[in-house]
């Protein structure tokens, strides 16, 4: 039986010239990938003018002393749906651990825990996600567009949003300044 190369727990980096402006310099944390499809959360761009306090107030949670951090653009699908990527030291009713590296929660209990100071020690919030149907990401990986890299949780929690794309290429031993925006044909 042939085993597929699933990308759960890795990061997708948009190559220059990906062809979709929504994904220019995108960094996507792949949270699930199997024969049924894939789901990832964008961590390379913020939503202008939207902070955590705005999100908490929309769901009627008192932000208390929680920092009003910017919200990430998680992807073009279900852009009003929130997700929290967080350290594995907290778990809620729908939390999934991603390849033992970080966790993903998508229900209000994680936001409530963060606001009350009893949530995960490290976290980031995103609206929307990137999704692929069965075999779609696998097919996209055969064309110019995405580079997958294996990195640790410091990509999420120890790197500024604006630096994640460059960090990912550097982790793969690639200087992104030397990349062209077109793929060649042999």
UniProtKB/TrEMBL annotation:
A Pfam match: DUF179
Family matches, as Gene3D superfamilies: VC0467-like (3.40.1740.10)
Gene Ontology CC terms, in alphabetical order: cytosol
InterPro entries, A to Z: AlgH-like
Record HAMAP family: UPF0301
Protein family: Belongs to the UPF0301 (AlgH) family.
Name this polypeptide is given: UPF0301 protein SPMU_13520
Organism: Sphingomonas mucosissima
Lineage of the species this protein comes from: Bacteria, Pseudomonadati, Pseudomonadota, Alphaproteobacteria, Sphingomonadales
